[in-house]
Amino acid sequence: MGEFSWRPWIVVMVAILLANVLFALFAQQNIQTAEISYSRFRAELAADNIKQVRIKGPIITGEFRARTKVSEQVQGKAVVRDVAGFGTVIPAISDPTLMPDLSSHKVEVTALSTESSAMVNALIYVAPWLIIIGIWWFGTRALRNQGPGGMLGGFSRSGARTYTTQEKVEVTFDDVAGLENSKLELKEIVDYLRNPKQFERIGGKVPKGVLLVGPPGTGKTLMARAVAGEAGVTFFSISASQFIEMFVGVGASRVRDLFTNAKKAAPSIIFIDELDAVGRSRGAGFGGGHDEREQTLNQLLSEMDGFDQHQEVIVIAATNRPDVLDPALLRPGRFDRHVVIERPDWRDREKILLVNVAKIALAEGIDLGVVARGTPGMTGADLENLVNEAAILASREGADTVGMEHLEKAKDKILMGGERKMFISPEEKRVTAYHEAGHTLAARLLPGTDPIHKVTIIPRGMALGVTQQLPEDDRYHYPLSYLEKRLVVAMGGRVAERLVFGEVSTGAQNDLKQVTDLAEKMVCQWGMSDKVGPMTFSRGEEQPFLGMKLAAEKTFSEAMAWRIDQEIAAFVRRAEQRAEGLLSANRSKLDRLAAALQEEETLDGARVDEIIGG
Ligand code: ADP
Ligand code: ZN
Description:
CATH class of the largest domain: Mainly Alpha
Largest sheet: 6 strands, mixed
Number of domains: 5
Strand content: 5-15%
Bound molecules: adenosine-5'-diphosphate, zinc ion
Helix content: 40-55%
Number of strands: 14
Distance between the termini: 69 Å
Structural class: alpha/beta
Shape: elongated
CATH topology of the largest domain: Methane Monooxygenase Hydroxylase, Chain G, domain 1
């Protein structure tokens, strides 16, 4: 509840206090009174100086017959005052002579009920309700997305202030390494924002919404900022998940505020990260639906439609799930322009590394191309992390510069997980060594598989050992024969264990999962099974959006489902048999590799060649 405003409550409290004070003042009847001791009161009574008393519980207030001097302690000093009235407290010990004494001195006695007055009672009963109704009222105000105004003016607006950022960015296209095609596509947006009038005169179609599509960490945010920097316009940004994560009901008003501010600052760019968080197909939600998200989405759509033809505001959104977006978002006039931000290939990875090492002290003569080649699939964010990790390693070792060995270690840590300190019995070590030797030998013996980069039996992450293969270049197409060999390599570990120890162990679980997933994709996604045929099925799809998967019907028959299962199993079995044949025919090499692994724990590609070749 970070946005809760205390101001209205302070006002309410002050009002209640004031009412109390006034009430008390009236009750006092404005007589000059002083607090006196009970004995003083008895003394005055004996002196026949008490005209009347009011008794309320243990409290007596009253008037003197003549004005009387009373000394009081005011801020530690004795002050003598001349007063007409008094107040005192009856001691808890009963004083049976009080009433007779009062009547004998002809004092007028009034007894008051100890019950508090009706007004105070009413206040006590009503106050909690007032507070509850107040909260409810403020809550519904927010729900109705009423704009700023009234006591809670800052309520919904302050959210936008906290969660959106508005800035003049310094980043330019030069800060984005690689991605030349995407930059070229975005150049048009930059031209428009720089000089809208001229752009329109030439007759360019004014863009409104651009969707950047790409995996996380590939630099979508960076690219959007660079567009703003190149054009020299104000950059507003918000993450769509933040629209809906805060108070219920403020998502839509936040969208409106964002657009209002951006229009005021035009020309400007609004960047919405993770658009899929609000932009998922309507109706795809499950578990009670998500009205909040839909309201936010609707507001976003109507804001985009409400753009004046000549309003120089461009909305750039980023997502890695364009497939789940609501089609309404992609209609002309909305996010109709798509720019794909790809995972960098090794040449771009080298450029990204270059940008990042500029911030650290790098040792002389390091070929970043080698690192770039050794990091297939890594994104800009991963590479940034790699360089950072290497710098940390270097400083931990007390080195002056970051060397190749640090980069290499950082890479291993990211690709294979951090080394784990754990006790491993010699027997376990032997099993792991044979397991990894099985993977390694299978990969080494099959032509056309990715070269072995490193094999280790030092526990890393969740694995007891790791065999790491690295492709020579990035691949975009995988032929069937290559994938089949990959299955063989993955089965190599388990097969080697069975060959040597006569039984399998739990160590192959991860391998089996990989094998099954890959075989499933080969059959269901890539049509690589003749028996199933060249079709794709909803099985084995990558990271299905939960709601979509539940909603997706099974579009194939039971007979086909059975055939798919058979084919996946057949792929896996064939791979297992091939691995078995391969390893048993090369048992001596397997033994040598396993022995070397137990001895040296980590072998690089060259060392593996040496052992197998020798
Ligand atoms: P996304 O928005 O796609 O998830 P970001 O733009 O947040 O990714 O990028 C994550 C980090 O990676 C940023 O710190 C950025 O500097 C870095 N990065 C990503 N791609 C590149 C690139 N092409 N050039 C330079 N840095 C990059
Ligand atoms: Zn394995």
